[in-house]
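Margin note: ligand = flavin-adenine dinucleotide.
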Amino acid sequence: MSYDLIIIGSGPAGYPAAVRAGQYGLKTAIIEKNPKLGGTCLHVGCIPTKSMLHSAEVWNYFRHAGDHGVIVDNPKLDFSKIIDIKNDVVAKNAKGVEFLMKKNKAEVIPGFARLLGKGKVEVTAADGAKRTLEAPHIVLATGSEARMLPGLQPDPEKILTNVEILNLREVPKSLAIIGSGAVGMEFASMFNRFGSQVAVFEMLPRVVAKEDEDISKEMTRIFKKQGVRIETSAKVSGIERTKTGVKFQVEYSDGKKETLEFEKLLVAVGRKPNTENVGLENTKAELDRGFIKVNGYMQTAEPGLYAIGDILAGYPQLAHAGTMEAVVALGHIAGKPALAVWASPKPTPRAAAMMSRWASSPSSPTARPRFSASPMAL
Ligand SMILES: Cc1cc2nc3c(=O)[nH]c(=O)nc-3n(C[C@H](O)[C@H](O)[C@H](O)COP(=O)(O)OP(=O)(O)OC[C@H]3O[C@@H](n4cnc5c(N)ncnc54)[C@H](O)[C@@H]3O)c2cc1C
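Resulting structure:
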């Protein structure tokens, strides 16, 4: 079967690319290995966390209502209901993405895609059936997954990634988080407000180390004030499951060592690009530590092959960045005016957005989050 364009992956990079392709009148196929469209952001990233952060914020208002002269007798937290609400938000938005694919006439092909080179893509369906598709242009948008520590496997109960933690049905009494990047700090903020005793262990000398130092300082101050334990220059080792939770050793910069036990452990040590097993070895595309190198129009070194989203070397791993990269790539593919976007070393505006969302206190309400499946800038 042949198309003008094949897109691999339906996250916030892939599905806006399909929308744009429809607007440009391209015959497009979008291949997705998961049963639902929307990718990490919609199912186990931006959207579910923002739904739960909003619930955490509401709960926090109720807990501190008296400070504002509002008397609330005996407020109760129904955490399982919060998870149901989150699942609802995700399901509605996944339907929204499906609708966008129909509206823009992109053919959704379920299955695992692999590049065969020279404009060919092999798709393996869930039942093992294989078929080959062809197109002069291919956009790879296979995204990323949680990086694990060597020798460690996540499970639904004790050692968690962003996937498992979003399905807990009870608030853990205590939660240790390894890694203080965007994901680690977001969950620290959320579960601290839900009432867990939260501790963050960061190997580097400061939290959110990709952001400006001022941001790290301010976040550390606010998080500590809110009751989150923050340990920087702290090296975690010897992680093991116990009957009641997870035990590990921490070594601090002064050489002091400590053994700690928490009910749950979240590993948030970064995101691994999904560039293995997708057939890149059949192309001329170049990699940098697993991430794909592109020029400002998202072109790889393989003619006709573009890459967008979390798999890119040097670009921020953010949903709206992926969407913008889709717009640029599609403009270039369709021969429309497209502004080149080059990798930026310092995505500073993101830090400001993080601060307002995670560090807001009961006395500084933030706007109610909007959950929209419509791609930005389209
Ligand atoms: C907890 C958490 C919170 C986050 N919060 C935010 C936030 O608030 N704001 C923000 O901007 N970003 C946030 N992010 C980052 C955001 O989720 C990612 O930047 C974004 O999802 C990347 O989009 P993508 O399309 O590149 O990849 P993904 O969303 O990962 O989508 C890739 C898709 O490709 C599919 N796929 C992979 N391989 C194949 C294959 N071989 N064949 C077929 N299909 C395949 C996958 O199943 C997936 O559906 C968050 C991430 C996490 C983990």
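The pocket of flavin-adenine dinucleotide is lined by residues 8-14, 31-34, 39-41, 45-46, 49, 112-113, 141-144, 162, 183, 186, 274, 278, 309-310, 317-320, 322 (CB under 6 Å).
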